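[09:14] KT: can someone run the structure on this one? pasting the chain below
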Amino acid sequence: MNKKEIEELIKFVSKAGVSEVSLEQKDFKITIKNSSRNFETIVAAPQQVLQAAPVAAPAPVAAPAPAAPAAPVAPKADDESKFHVVKSPMIGTFYRSPSPDKPNYVNVGDEVKQGKVICIIEAMKLFNEIECDITGKIVKVLVDNSSPVEYDQPLFLVDPS
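[09:31] RB: done, structure tokens below
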């Protein structure tokens, strides 16, 4: 792993908002810890250890907008409880289409079958197709295109009826 790849990994960790990432290859190990103020990067290679001094973190990624007051949320939660939630199986960047010039995999109102690709999640320059785990109709897309997602974060609401 070269310096540029390490820098890209640090940027990815910062953008994804995770607190720690470890990557180990046969002769190389790297751990990146992200706190709100600094990065600590530990790189281990055969007979070589590199530890970066804490540096100022890049501008924080905007936090999701706070939820509406409790009263309006309760009825909405009841309405959405009948829908199946498709969740992210990994940390990465969410994309609704295979490339910017291609149409979205699915849109609100589309019928989907179990196993149909509904989005992709990029993790470390690997594009992973995410398949729907239920047959139904897309009711809501819960994530903006090109947004970082966490493991188990809700992506779509699907009406299984």
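[09:33] KT: thanks! The chain has two domains: 3-51, 81-159.
[09:34] RB: yep, looked fine to me
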